[in-house]
Amino acid sequence: MRTSSSEYQKQWNKLMYNFYDYLPTKYKQASQRDWDVRKLIWEFKDGKRSLTVAKLVADKLIQFFGAEAKNIVFACIPASSEQKNITRYKVFADEVCRLSGAVNAFDHIHVHGARLAIHETKCSKNLETVQTIDFDKEFFNGKKILVFDDILTQGYSYAKFSCMLERFGASVIGGFFLGKTLLLN
């Protein structure tokens, strides 16, 4: 099923909160803060800062939603392979949900195969994937979902993932992103 730009626009009009601005490495004149954010994000992607970032995310989830956090399902957009997904999100999602009371969707989304991450290729729009993602569709039906991803660049991964969850009967309330890519002229 093809997703229309109006469906994506609907997702982009929802809550989209980023913790940090992320300056890509192609920009050579980076401040110490830019390098600190890069390092945090890169280490998070490698599973090394899971608990630190989980505390940050859980605190913000509680700040935004209070006691209602217990009725929210926390769903991470899968990484590019099963192993990277486990490394990046298993401990992290467990801890976010433990600290916030949210419901963890990690065990209800399964990654098979792998795809090239967009930053690993020369082309970003015509990327062919060999990854499949299986969802426990019944689990998501009727649930309020908060989506998480490490980096928000243009928002297509977030919108596509959110639309998919809504096709299963979920209601996506928005997304949290560790970093948002800054696109400078």
UniProtKB/TrEMBL annotation:
Keyword terms of this UniProt record: Glycosyltransferase, Transferase
GO molecular function: glycosyltransferase activity
Keyword Transferase applies: yes
Gene3D superfamilies found in the cross-reference section: 3.40.50.2020
Top-level taxonomy: Bacteria, Pseudomonadati, Bacteroidota, Bacteroidia, Bacteroidales
InterPro entries for this protein: PRTase-like, PRTase_dom
Protein name: Phosphoribosyltransferase
